[in-house]
Amino acid sequence: MLRHLPGLLLLLWPLLLLPPPTPAAPGPLARPGSRRLGMRGPAGSPGRRPAPAAPTGAPYSGTGQPGGARGAGVCKSKPLDLVFIIDSSRSVRPLEFTKVKTFVSQIIDTLDIGAADTRVAVVNYASTVKIEFHLQTHSDKQSLKRAVARITPLSTGTMSGLAIQTAMDEAFTVEAGARGPTSNIPKVAIIVTDGRPQDQVNEVAARARASGIELYAVGVDRADMESLKMIASEPLDEHVFYVETYGVIEKLSSRFQETFCALDPCALGTHQCQHVCISDGEGRYHCECSQGYSLNADMKTCSAINKCALNTHGCEHICVNDRTGSYHCECYEGYTLNEDKKTCSAQDQCAFGTHGCQHICVNDRGGSHHCECYEGYTLNADNKTCSVLSKCALGSHGCQHICVDDGAAAYHCECYAGYTLNEDRKTCSAIQEARRLISTEDACGCEATLAFQDKVNSYLQRLNAKLDDILGKLQENESGQIHH
């Protein structure tokens, strides 16, 4: 770098010797109260200066545009009834008048032209006034711009007051294409002049403003600033423009584009909608919520909808709300949720083994079941477990002849008539068998016979005792039955 420094100094030395530039003097009429950019005025006027762009990551916008600098989708011209009032007096040279027409065409290019959007008319004036075309004449940009290009100067005089009065009486009428007061479409007039009015413009402009027409005044070169202030609407610093020559008037077209801009809060990200911002046009918008949410009373934030309460869930049995504003379906006990996640089918709980029945599970219709018990058992109060009803009925008592129940779980054995209960209290022996043994015994007087007889006698004694016992019980039973 150092070895190239001498060469650079030789190249720059002639420039360093030049005197510093003299600041350009302001134009003769550039004074306080005028500016080069107008912002939208009070309520009912076309536009305000756009707000700062929203940071990246703003909530979703219904326009599909991210928040950011003004551009396509952010700024859309508001519908207007717009009348240009252009000075074509002798002081405006032909080339300068061409510049004015270019200025008008460039503003038209920035607007949305159409019967439902902005309508444009042009009033040409000098010492006389001519309405070049009305608001209803052209409904597209190309035909408008061709009509503007055909306008020719009127040459003499500067009757600004007469031009404003003509615009008010003939251009801003419903018959000429202006929309009525119920439409809320702003009425705007832009007057372009380079001289001092030769008539009383103050009172006419005041009547125009009082009728609802918003007046912008553009002064060029020798224009009288005081007259511009008398014409324009308040605040003056937003409605009075000045350029030094017609050569730079075209630069104002982009500034009028901003003036007539209807900002899209959705695209700017200034809407404060919690979920979705929907642009309604003309700078208006409304908020909506994602599916499963409803808009709160503040018309900006959202709350989860209780879809189960709305009864639109489609669940066959049970709807359960989830925290996210969604829901899921469940089924009654004994049912299972089908693949559609809404309907239910009955379960076979007996087959699943989840029934809890001690003995027998019986499936019922509708996915339910009940418990039953084996023979000789009864179902307990819990409807699941079983208790013995009759041990004799169970067949496991072991009695050879007769089983007699003595309660829920007790019993005893008895024998048929002609039999006696053995010592095991279950089996029975026939009484006639003992007697048969005695009759067939050999009557021999041998010791063996005597011993056998003694044995038989002893047996008979025991047998008689048992018979007496049985007879006693029978008598007791008979006496008990008589009492009953």
Chart the SSEs and their pairings:
Blueprint: H1 5-16, E1 60-61, E2 75-77, E3 81-87, H2 94-110, E4 119-125, E5 129-133, H3 141-149, H4 160-171, E6 187-193, H5 201-210, E7 213-220, H6 225-231, H7 236-239, E8 240-243, H8 252-259, E9 261-263, H9 265-268, E10 276-281, E11 284-288, E12 293-295, E13 302-304, H10 307-310, E14 318-321, E15 327-330, E16 335-337, E17 344-346, H11 349-352, E18 360-363, E19 369-372, E20 377-379, E21 386-388, H12 391-394, E22 402-405, E23 411-414, E24 419-421, E25 428-430, H13 431-439, H14 447-483
Parallel strand pairs: 1-10, 3-4, 3-6, 6-7, 7-8
Antiparallel strand pairs: 2-9, 4-5, 10-11, 12-13, 14-15, 16-17, 18-19, 20-21, 22-23, 24-25
Low-confidence stretches: 1-73
Q: pLDDT average, as an integer?
A: 79
Structural Rg: 58 Å
Number of strands: 25
The neighbouring-strand order within the major sheet is: 5-4-3-6-7-8
Q: Roughly how many Å apart are the termini?
A: 140 Å
What is the overall shape? rod-shaped
Percent range for β-strand residues = 15-25%
Question: Helical element count?
Answer: 14
Largest pleated sheet: 6 strands, mixed
> Helicity, in percent?
25-40%
- Estimated structural class: alpha/beta
Structure in words:
This protein is of the alpha/beta class. Helix content is 29%, strand content 22%. It has 14 helices and 25 strands. It has helices at residues 5-16, 94-110, 141-149, 160-171, 201-210, 225-231, 236-239, 252-259, 265-268, 307-310, 349-352, 391-394, 431-439, 447-483, and strands spanning 60-61, 75-77, 81-87, 119-125, 129-133, 187-193, 213-220, 240-243, 261-263, 276-281, 284-288, 293-295, 302-304, 318-321, 327-330, 335-337, 344-346, 360-363, 369-372, 377-379, 386-388, 402-405, 411-414, 419-421, 428-430. A hairpin with a 3-residue loop joins strand 4 and strand 5. Mean pLDDT is 79; it is low at 1-73.
